[in-house]
Amino acid sequence: MRALVWHGANDIRCDTVPDPKIEHPRDAIVKVTTCAICGSDLHLHDNFMPGMEKGDIVGHEFMGEVMEVGAEAKSALKIGERVVVPFTIWCGDCDQCKRGNYSVCERSNRNKALADKVFGHTTAGLFGYTHLTGGYAGGQAEYVRVPMADRTHIKIPGGLTDEQVLFLGDIFPTGWQAAAQCDIQPTDTVAIWGCGPVGQMTIRSAILLGAKQVIAIDRVPERLAMAKAGGAITINFEEESVVERLNELTGGKGPEKCIDAVGMEAHATATIDSMMDRAKQALMLESDRAHVLREMIYVCRPAGTLSIPGVYGGLIDKMPFGMAMNKGLTWRMGQTHVNRWTDDLLNRIQEGQIDPSFVITHTVPLDQGPEMYKTFRDKRDGCIKVVLKP
Amino acid sequence: MAYYNRSSTGDNLARGLGWFSVGLGVAELMAGRTIARWMGMEDKTNLIRAYGVREITAGVGLLALGDPKPWIWSRIAGDAVDMATLAAGMENNPRAGNAGIAFGAVMAATALDIVCVQKLHQEEAYYRSLPVPDYSDRSGFPRPVSAMRGAASDAPIGEDMRTPKILRFQPAQSQTAQNQIAQNQTATS
């Protein structure tokens, strides 16, 4: 089969690789009909995430048709069923899964010993996202093996297009959880850094959850236009001061809720601290550029909440933690507990409350994926979300 | 917003110059005295080492900091300073020939820098000439935003995702918080 394969920094290729096989009775094989490039895939492409190996198949946002089902998954899945696959693999039986904390499933990471060493305790297995999270083959491919498939799926009813439901596997619930864990109240101002795909979903989620005011911060004109269409007041950080504008919009108090939908690759040349971070990254003295976190801590209203759906990989430097401590900020973060949200979100899509396909700007065949990684990374051609068709 | 393409011809040339800068910078820093002697400019050893730091900074900037144009311009400025230093150092210099070779090398590097920055600006002009897609109608909602605000306020969100009530900013919750504080004060007194 054909798949997008990681070969090193800035080197993802469309290769021919062996087809996946059932390896465990709980597995299923899914024929991928639609997949997408996620912003967090760029961290792999740019080689900022440790734990990738040459030959790894990437991609964790995908859906398709069930082709084969292992003996122990047959009660939950049938051949021919249409499923979106969540990026977090979950067992459903461990203490964390029973609490709904699927992204920290204690059993789905087959490289648990490695994750225990690196993270202290393991988190869930993820598709196509380093050997620290299991080294599972990803879904930017014609076929994919889904471990623990009896749990790790979202069944899709007829009448909905792939484009409407694909993002249930990652960016929609990720944006939703980012907003939900802020516990948005009707009097809240929610500031969201980053108007990429997750940022766009977060904006819509914050509006649906009833925020009084949603403010989106970015520098790319077309992304800001899309944010504005979704109901956000926009701030272009290259044209105006984020701190001054946020104070102006909140009567000098600061936003109650701040969401980081940027993560470890904050724009490298906008501020001195970002430039220092980038230089340190290049010299392997630091792994993540944390400008957004620093700015959120600074601007957030005391006793407010910081929500972090943006992906961070390791070590950050010069974190104003004293400021955060003295302001009594609440921090909410983590990978998304995808299946905790998807029944509700699927209903909302079916009811027509939201159509997540608004974010798609490019649809191309799988073999154009490597080039689209670069287009997406460089924000060329108005690229916000790339969908691939294997 | 600066436009650049990290896979373009101009960018590849910039990255090459970035590695060249790092290499030259390390050489100037580590072997500043040897280079100065070879050019007959031993009194400029510390200056050459300082230039090495400048080259390393430009190299890291070119390799790691996104838009390469400002860093290539900084290299061109640096080239001018290098040439001025070498020209001044050639007077009454028994090794003026070697200094002249270095001067020629800097001129060649400057030419490459100029070609590179021209290419980068051409590429930016091309990207700027492309039409900006209009996403101003992509709300994702079936009705105006004002009608969708709060449409999911009944969403099933677990208590573990909620903020403790006392930390909520809603006026009504603040009253609750005040009542709670009053109760606590009564209990302690």
Automatic annotation (TrEMBL), chain A:
The keyword Nucleotidyltransferase does not apply. It holds the Pfam family ADH_N. CDD domains: FDH_like_1. Residues 197-276 form the Alcohol dehydrogenase-like C-terminal domain. The keyword Zinc applies. Its cofactor is Zn(2+). SUPFAM superfamilies: GroES-like, NAD(P)-binding Rossmann-fold domains. It comes from the Bacteria. InterPro entries: ADH-like_C, ADH-like_N, ADH_Zn_CS, GroES-like_sf, NAD(P)-bd_dom_sf. Keywords: Metal-binding, Oxidoreductase, Zinc. Transmembrane segments: none annotated. Residues 25-150 form the Alcohol dehydrogenase-like N-terminal domain. Belongs to the zinc-containing alcohol dehydrogenase family. This is Glutathione-dependent formaldehyde dehydrogenase.
TrEMBL record, chain B:
Residues 172-189 have a biased composition (Low complexity). This is Cyclase dehydrase. It comes from Azospirillum endophyticum. The chain crosses the membrane at residues 12-31. Residues 169-189 are annotated as: Disordered. Keywords: Membrane, Transmembrane, Transmembrane helix.
